[in-house]
């Protein structure tokens, strides 16, 4: 049971990265449906970085922890941000429809990730996966407490730190205030002298970079460096977008909702006694629960639990 | 992005009024060709074959033999059918991302009919039952999100999307129930039961369906009261209410229709094309169809062209792979997506025109620090249609010149 919860918390990092990134983007008024593609790009960026690092070594035994962690992470960030650049160029500068652009990004990201995965040699990925997975040397002595709090790889803690940081920035700082203003009422924000374009670009790119790490985490930490299908990563991306609604656009709440989805997602592995067909039904749960959450939030629909007012709308100063 | 410290922009963007009819078409054509070439250069970098030769391969793959042409037409027809299915929903601004799932449950329903009734009914009756099952299943899958959207304004984008995954899990559940070993033995039923009669060759029937449905949908959307209500709700819910349209009813009715056509596509897939049932048999057509419908501005005739283009891209790219002897199943997706980016981007140049400021500067123009050479003094363009490559990388340039740098950095970056 403890290990099930620990596994779920670990899993939740993928959702947390994805949803934090999407929250930041949505706060600026952009509904990025490309998050699944961005996460695929993040994962495959990690793979490219890992490959470059491994191929620069004489053999796998020379892999050392720090570069093996940082190089894939950097490549992940670069590729994921590039997707963010492309998305914001199309939607902010060219004012393309956000949903269509997002879907195209998702198609591209998943396709590109599969493409690279097909040609990239994966020696050493297992070892790098282990570096991602193990941060603290031993937690056995601490028992259940240790397993619940100190058994994770660095990315899990990074996800939580980023979520808390994003929450603080959104709530407490001037930048956060401006960002929210841009998402709520760009015309007003524009009138007060906030650079809408800059904020929207930055939020989308930073959001994409964060979301991309979710893919990287799932690839190296959760899956131990063996490639999960692009479809699997995309599914995480879509769930992350749903978690944003569940967390009512608050990164700190997203920590808990991500854990809940982590539990749901891991449930089928926990129920070892279930037959295969039962497992497919359990595998349906995260999606069914998401639907229920959508329904409940729309029925309850309190004032506080609303998306940014101009979410999904592109801003064109001369169209006011 | 240029910093906004200088308040005098170098250019400004205005909405185009009515333009000549051919201009949008030319802009789109340029975008498609540009996107195609970026895709080809990507493929060329990968296969190390001259891109023009690759273009030849693509045409060969799409039109090379009679069979290839039929395959191309079949792909076009299937994609067009899904696009036709979603178009009423999208015209209503109901973001039905769940066409994949609605089609998949359609497939499942047909399979269920075959599994339980194959030895009890003659072929024509079995086909009829399959079709009814599929239509019903698609309708159910489509109408559930619609009901909640109509009643409580539940977010339909995510709802329909989640229904896709539920459908996938449902299919794998049923398959495991039928074949607990995990072996998909469905072929043995299909060798004898539930197959559509062949008219001439296996492709013509699907083409007929596509043509008939496209024409019908065109008529439905443009000539009937229902179609008018759909557009009205899409334009403005308040106006619709004001003129007495029952918005809830329209949403639910339209999604019933949309889901039913998706279910029908599922029936066609099972009975006339794949003769099997798997979780991946819809193959993302639901997503591609959205882009197809949107690119065609929801006009069924243009949708046929857009479907043909997508089918050409994917068939052609597959041919590149087989002719260069390289196996990488994902290349068609990448090339198609690249072309999509260009078309999405080019809409801007259709809707807006860029006008440069006349030289009455009271303050210096924004410091164009990342400008490359000629950008500094863009002369006054009469019609802002083809601005030169000027400073901010984002803001202007024609789709052709413009998207090239972005895409190439992107393509070049990662290989």
Structural notes for this entry:
Chain A has helices at 2-27, 35-55, 65-93, 98-119, 125-133, 143-150, 154-172, 174-184, 186-191, 196-222, 230-246, 251-270, 276-300. Chain A has one domain: ABC transporter involved in vitamin B12 uptake, BtuC, CATH 1.10.3470. The mean pLDDT of chain A is 87. In chain A, helix 1 packs antiparallel against helix 10. Chain A is globular, with a radius of gyration of 20 Å. Chain A is mainly alpha-helical and 320 residues long. In chain A, 75% of the residues lie in helices and 0% in strands. Chain B is mainly α and 415 residues long. Chain B folds into two domains: 9-40 and 334-415, no CATH class; 65-308, ABC transporter involved in vitamin B12 uptake, BtuC (Orthogonal Bundle), CATH 1.10.3470. In chain B, helix 1 runs parallel beside helix 15, helix 4 runs parallel beside helix 6 and helix 4 (99-117) crosses helix 12. Chain B starts with 10 loop residues before the first strand and ends with a helix. The longest helix of chain B is centred in the N-terminal third of the chain and has 30 residues, at 123-152. A two-stranded antiparallel ribbon of chain B has the order 1-2. Chain B is built from 15 helices and two strands. The interface between A and B is large, with 62 and 62 residues.
